[in-house]
Amino acid sequence: MLALGIDIGGTMIKTAIVDSNGTLSEKRLFPTSIDLKDQLLEIVREELAAHKVEAIGIGTAGRIDPVTGNVNLATSNLANWTGVPVKTLIQENTGVVTAVLNDSSAAAFGEWFCNYRRAETLVMITVGSGLGGGIVINGSPLLGKRGEAAEFGHIIIHRGGKPCNCGKEGCAEQYISMRLIHSLVAAAAGQEMDRATLIEQYLSGNPVVEEAVSTVTGDLAIVVDSVFLSLDPDLVVVGGGVCELGKRFLNSLREELSVLSRSSLYTEEDVVLSLSGNDAGIIGAAVYAMAGEASGHE
Length: 298
Hints:
The protein has 298 residues and is an alpha/beta fold. It has 8 helices and 12 strands. Strands 3-2-1-4-7 form a 5-stranded mixed sheet. Strands 10-9-8-11-12 form a 5-stranded mixed sheet, with helices on both faces. A two-stranded antiparallel sheet has the order 5-6. A hairpin with a 2-residue loop joins β9 and β10 (140-141). The longest helix is centred in the C-terminal third of the chain and has 25 residues, at 207-231. It is globular.
């Protein structure tokens, strides 16, 4: 069985053809358009003209109704996306069984499917332009009653803190993201660094970049510790663009967790970096759709 996997983010849409083993091919990238609904339809039609698939899986930023596949809520990162019936839109226009879920939930499922199928409970925290999360329990993504499961980015960690685009203040996403690392570095260094330069400087030990990353890992450790004490998962996987900071970043996070976990039964070694990287969301969405098609549920 083959499926079209689609990962919709605030800046980029990624697509690929995925087989039932999670093997990915024909990957393509598209800058996210302000007319996202029309763009998505066009992309799907192009892909279906080139490839025969039996299902379409879509992971998208936002809070997705687990039954209808509608976008219940999307922040300003995706303009005019709240209320869009994504599953109905694609399925009725193509005739292909379609499944829709949150992009971080898709990434968590893809990571579990490709790398950790023996794990009973896996939690993924994605750190990129924002902060997201996904949970897989007994081989199924936990989506929640309202599609709000694992919205770690909007848990308040600093009461009365920075305003968030969700309307609250002090949300974790305002303190944990690659965007914040870039901002902290620019403020301290007096100039901005592009992604490649920032990674290079961090790996070479630039103290300004190290301090910025350390600030973010301190708050990330608080969220990770809360996840372990709430769900007691087998492991927590950190994904997203922050993974490009590599083992040095992971060691920094584990160092913070070694203090927080002293009175707990989990250890800092139970936190790992994503093995599937930026492909996890595409794979997870596609496999999720194939599982629904194989079981006869649309």
